[in-house]
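Incident review: delayed structure delivery

Summary: a single-chain prediction request sat in the queue longer than the usual turnaround. Root cause was a stuck worker, restarted by the on-call engineer. No data loss occurred. The affected request and its eventual output are reproduced below so the record is complete for anyone auditing the incident later.

Affected input:
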Amino acid sequence: MPFFAAQGICKRFGATVALKDVAFDVEPGEVHALVGENGSGKSTLMRVLCGETAPDAGSMSLDGSTYRPTGPQDAHRHGVALIHQELAVCAHLSVAENVCLGAEPSVRLLLSRGTMAQTARQALAQLGHGDLDVWTEVGRLPVAMRQIVEIARALAADARVVIFDEPTSSLTQSDAERLFAVVAQLRGQGKAIVYISHFLDEIERVADRVSVLRDGEKVGTFARADIGRDRMVTLMVGRAVDEMYPRSERVPGDVLLRVEDLAGASKPTRASLTVRRGEVLGIAGLTASGRTELLRAVFGLDAVRQGRVTVGAYGGPASPARRWRQGIGMLSEDRKGEGLAMNLSISDNVTLANTNRGFWVSPARMRADASTWAERLRVRCQGPDQPVGALSGGNQQKVALGRLLSYGVDLLLLDEPTRGIDVGSKAEIYALVDRLVQEGKAVVIVSGYLPELLGVCDRIAVMHRGELGPPIDARTTAEARLASMVAGE
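Output delivered after worker restart:
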């Protein structure tokens, strides 16, 4: 009998079949990868395994005994830990409190802060962040560091089964390398590891076996050596993805945006750039380099200490509302916290910026507009009235992108636009970006995934310690050179 197994798992949400007769298992000392498009059922299966969702049918076993968790806390007591794709940290608590959440050490019924701090430091040290102040409020940390804190929580719990759901989606390359080392360490300790990722190069690197889900059903399970990347993609999407990074002939036009010696409250320290119609400009850099702060300063979300931002003929400070009116839209890297109103419908989210254009708001037109963009972006949903919070992460990202396109902006500022999105959806977004610049729009992409920048962009500028370097030609730059520039070499 497998160490950790699920048989015949079924789950429906209304008319939507999320899982249909799915079987899955993992052995001690094994990394079993799970791949599939957004909406294929991966996250639902993981929520079933860790007790967050009860299956409609099927059974599970752990170490030879029936396993039927009543909730995440019960699964935690059985030694099953899930590291979520959408961060499940408490922003108002400290790093130490988050790492020990649900298993707080105590002495005679009193909380032991010393033991809590020591536990957190030991777990963080395994991830290469032992110097992090464990009493820092998590809400003050960047997204990548919050991901590190959540991974540290699973390590501190000494779980027997560790489920990684897109663990590197918010990590820098150096942090991802540390994570791979931790996965290898856990495998060597005999832990059973379930690993979900849309980065197929990661799957090739860490997995022993690979299971593919499509439309809620398991297509098959393969030894990693028996399935190549192209085969994985074909099984995931049900078709071959002919061209990952489409690039039409591009002719840059007029300057839409000019940034001169821009400095924010903390970052960037200095940044200058121009963006023209008909081109894609990439911004590379480590997570804390200031790349996100640059977009936020340009869009008016963060204060500008010095410098000048010129949009068309207008130069000077501006609020986000003015930037919208000037034809600039921004997609935040934190779609859950900033990019979407999770309790509102798809229709409300897609048309949110449009409601300020006039006094009268037509619900019928809002739904029609949302349906149009949902169809174009292949959002898997029950309809425009479905709450965004009920969608998978990748489909939520498509809705956030649809809001910019619905408004009709000329310049799109995209911060990690494909984070947590499956390979098929990535190809669709890359094709969409190519079409947009062919229509005379301009796109700025911030990304930590260098193959994405090299494949999609015309020029790439590197942000290092708050300072933006001059752009280089993406078509003549090798990945190794770009990686060295990002590292500051």
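Verification: The radius of gyration is 23 Å.
Action items: add queue-age alerting; document worker restart procedure.
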